[in-house]
Write a structure and sequence with these properties.
The chain has 203 residues and is an all-alpha fold. It has two domains: 85 residues, Orthogonal Bundle (Rna Polymerase Sigma Factor, Chain: A), CATH 1.10.1740.10; 83 residues, Arc Repressor Mutant, subunit A (Orthogonal Bundle), CATH 1.10.10.10. The chain is 68% helix and 0% strand. Helix 2 crosses helix 3, helix 3 packs across helix 5 and helix 7 crosses helix 9. The radius of gyration is 19 Å and the shape is elongated.
């Protein structure tokens, strides 16, 4: 339980507080502290869910559900440093549960990929390349897709990604190897352009 002394230790500027301090306040049902946690972690959780669901319209709802589960019982997370991993794990499990109960329908309209280059033709090529890569990633088995999303698109270390997925580093590397092998086969026809796009996304 959060004590009064613990609560007083949190800085007045919530955006400067640690996740551990904010969790203590959330346990005391402090909505402002919880909102700060949402602001801090929602973007990455939503990106992971969005990619796993191939841009499905329900991606935001699934990401929000992970935060609702935290709000209902903040004491589920004992270590503030583990909060982001916990949220991603809960959200990815929600995605996999949805895939087990009903298949995701393809979106008629995909999000437009932003590109800052002035050359319109280059921007169009990049948009097509990213859409092709997204479709190939979406076709992967769910655990391979999650491993690839965490390591490649979210730039996590293998160790951090393995912790989130609750697998060994060796198991994670096996998932990544299979995912990359599948992508290499499915994207072989446009290898040069697509690999260049993947490299650009990672920088």
């Amino acid at each position: 339980m959060a004590t009064a002394s613990h609560l007083r230790s949190v800085p007045a500027g919530l955006d400067q507080a640690t996740d551990a301090d904010l969790l203590l306040h959330a346990q005391a049902r402090d909505g402002n502290a919880f909102a700060t946690l949402v602001d801090r972690h929602f973007p990455v959780v939503h990106r992971v869910v969005w990619r796993m669901m191939n841009g499905h319209a329900d991606a935001e709802d699934v990401a929000q559900e992970a935060f609702l589960r935290l709000w209902r019982d903040p004491q589920q997370v004992r270590d503030g440093a583990a909060l982001r991993g916990w949220l991603i794990r809960v959200a990815s499990n929600l995605v996999m549960d949805r895939f087990r109960t009903k298949p995701m329908q393809e979106l008629d309209d995909r999000f437009e990929v932003a590109d800052n280059r002035d050359n319109a033709e280059d921007a169009l090529d990049r948009t097509r390349a990213v859409a092709t890569i997204d479709a190939a990633v979406a076709s992967l088995p769910e655990r391979q897709k999650l491993a690839l999303t965490l390591v490649h698109f979210e730039h996590m270390t293998n160790t951090a990604a393995a912790t989130i997925m609750d697998v060994s580093v060796d198991a994670l590397e096996s998932l990544l190897a299979r995912a990359r092998r599948s992508l290499k086969e499915s994207l072989a026809a446009n290898k040069t352009m697509l690999l260049a796009t993947l490299a650009a996304e990672r920088t």
